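User: Quick sanity check before I run a bigger batch. Here is a single chain. Can you write out its predicted 3D structure?
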Amino acid sequence: MATLPRRDLLRLSLAGLAVAMARPIAACGAPLVSPGGADSGGDAVSPPPADAGLEASPIDAAPPTDGARPGDANAADASSPDSADAADAATDAADAADAAPTPLKSNIANLGPLEPPDANNLRLPPGFTSRVVATTGQLPVATSTYRWHVAPDGGAVYAAPGGEWVYVSNSEASPGGVGALRFNAAGDVVDAYPILTGTSTNCAGGHTPWGTWLSCEEHGRGRVFECDPMGVGAAEARPALGVFRHEAASVDPVRGQLYLSEDEPDGRFYRFTPAAMGMGGALDLTAGTLEVARVVAGAVTWLPVPDPELTGPTATRHQVPASTVFNGGEGLWYHAGKVYLATKGDDRVWEYDIVASTIREHYNHLTAANPILRAVDNLTGSAGGDILVAEDGDDLQIVAILPDGSLKAIVQVVNHPGSEVTGPAFDPSGTRLYFSSQRAPGGAVTFEVTGPFHV
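Assistant: Done. Predicted structure follows.
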């Protein structure tokens, strides 16, 4: 595995960091933007200036630590009061303390039971409200000509200047693509626009610490596209991430690696290590090493995929016979050194410990004491490490798996037969949750639910 310079890794260390996107997406190591923030896994970095563009979302942020990790070759230098590194670190820490938002605390464990359906056919906890922010085929805002896309699927939220934010949403159709809604500081929808067109069956994906959206195509020759949530830069295909039936992607911001899932009954679990860093701290996704997981008694080893761009006849998932099958890979989420993977084919959520390189069941419908969660699909997370799972079918709930392993239903869609819940994502305040009912009667509906998810 390529070793990235420690300073560059530290600059990546914020899961969910959003940064300015005033230029097109860069390729081959060209600069994207300058990142900053604090990684939920523990390393400290400096946030960007307030006018630099997108701001860090506190949902994925945690209080910064000293930034030195065991085994780090530069850890001794960082601790030396006479070194330039120590001076830089002190300055960075002071800047971060001045600019960092107050960390959010998850309140999901304290939410009450779901109440009867509201006017939008949603069952919510006491004290919560909902509204529809977009409907397929309709204009979300009169000042834009963009009509909301069909079959909304995976999504994410990005903070923007002036207290604004953007919600991006895939279209799992052919043609597909990605659409975006921009909200002002008061929460009004002020713009709607496409950020990716000309693709097919865009299912899930993942946000990056440098402020882009990875949109994944779910078909046999599917690719990953890196998109600008602000709609300024052109989207770029990233075939080095593999050509297969993609579902989701998640970035480990500490080690600078990506994890990818595959929606096949005999799908695989993949890891991508870029060959180089892009300028400005972004990972260069144009080249690198794609590996596939082999699991033996819970221990994970990573084996190189010989033809990740599928130039030959053998499907990517079949190129390494020793690799392990994951039945219907769905959502992925990184939090504090762990990667969570949903597999819909066997109704499980897995927890991969990156440092230990071990994997275990985080949830199994067949063995759960309170098996209210079925048809697991898209994932997102709270600031406290709750893993929110959207159901594709069953009774159309979003269910939180709390850190102690207990379950809490936080939303349920009713009277939408044959639909699925997709694209859950929190706004930067942690009090608004966005998601869609993909096949609602009369057209897909994208919702905003507001309440004390976080305090």
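Helices lie at 6-12, 75-79, 84-99.

User: Great, the batch can go ahead then.
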